[in-house]
């Protein structure tokens, strides 16, 4: 299976996938990363891809006259690598109709909260501010909402009294990276069906 991974930041989830595939081997893992895309230049996630010798592309909203044209350009850039599965690993843009028309049903996102709680760009901060005692991470298929697609797997992380956002996010990311590696491998090896809100992995 061919994976394209989309990043916007440090890329530690990408790195976890790279490390697992390097350790397990493409055959045994069931997938290889064929390209890494981003919405901005100069991020560690792109540097990690380059160090791994992977093709990269950057698709910036401000390089396009409209959001729809950015969305179409992103879909083209991803499609050029003929992915079976697209993984958003900290990609901080909401894709639109064109992208979903092309990759809906094979576009997975990881979110650092237990959806449907705390969707959006500040899930860790929001859980902390709310006083949640447990939070965690969710790997889900992307649909036309924000963090609303069918849930594939979740991991629970306790919130500690002394936590600030970055400490809690780091602890979530430890669980999230393992969850993403496990889920992507299973989807790639076993195949899956999406039945309404249910994801059935063969
Ligand atoms: C992850 O926790 C992801 O869920 C959130 O941003 C973080 C990205 O981390 N959207 P990294 O870029 O993979 O290190």
Automatic annotation (TrEMBL):
PANTHER family: PHOSPHORIBOSYLGLYCINAMIDE FORMYLTRANSFERASE. It comes from Streptomyces griseoloalbus. One of its GO terms (biological process) is 'de novo' IMP biosynthetic process. Catalyzes the transfer of a formyl group from 10-formyltetrahydrofolate to 5-phospho-ribosyl-glycinamide (GAR), producing 5-phospho-ribosyl-N-formylglycinamide (FGAR) and tetrahydrofolate. (6R)-10-formyltetrahydrofolate binds at residues 67, 92-95, 109. The keyword Nucleus does not apply. This is Phosphoribosylglycinamide formyltransferase. GO terms for molecular function: phosphoribosylglycinamide formyltransferase activity. Gene3D superfamilies: Formyl transferase, N-terminal domain. Residues 2-184 form the Formyl transferase N-terminal domain. It catalyses: N(1)-(5-phospho-beta-D-ribosyl)glycinamide + (6R)-10-formyltetrahydrofolate = N(2)-formyl-N(1)-(5-phospho-beta-D-ribosyl)glycinamide + (6S)-5,6,7,8-tetrahydrofolate + H(+). N(1)-(5-phospho-beta-D-ribosyl)glycinamide binds at residues 11-13. Keywords: Purine biosynthesis, Transferase. The active site is at 111 (proton donor).
């Amino acid at each position: 299976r061919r994976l394209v991974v989309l990043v916007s930041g440090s890329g530690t989830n990408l790195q976890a996938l790279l490390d697992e595939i390097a350790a397990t081997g493409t055959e045994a893992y069931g997938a290889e990363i064929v390209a890494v895309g981003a919405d901005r230049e100069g991020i560690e996630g792109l540097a990690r891809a380059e160090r791994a010798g992977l093709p990269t592309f950057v698709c910036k909203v401000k390089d396009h006259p409209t959001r729809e044209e950015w969305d179409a350009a992103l879909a083209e850039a991803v499609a050029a690598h003929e992915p079976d599965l697209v993984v958003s690993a900290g990609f901080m843009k909401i894709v639109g109709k064109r992208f979903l028309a092309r990759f809906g049903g094979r576009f997975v996102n990881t979110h650092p909260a237990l959806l449907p709680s705390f969707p959006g760009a500040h899930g860790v901060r929001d859980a902390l501010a709310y006083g949640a005692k447990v939070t965690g991470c969710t790997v889900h298929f992307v649909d036309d909402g924000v963090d609303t697609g069918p849930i594939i797997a979740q991991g629970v992380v306790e919130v500690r009294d002394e936590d600030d956002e970055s400490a809690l996010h780091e602890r979530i990311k430890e669980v999230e990276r393992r969850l993403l590696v496990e889920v992507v491998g299973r989807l790639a090896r076993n195949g899956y069906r999406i039945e309404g809100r249910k994801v059935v992995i063969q």
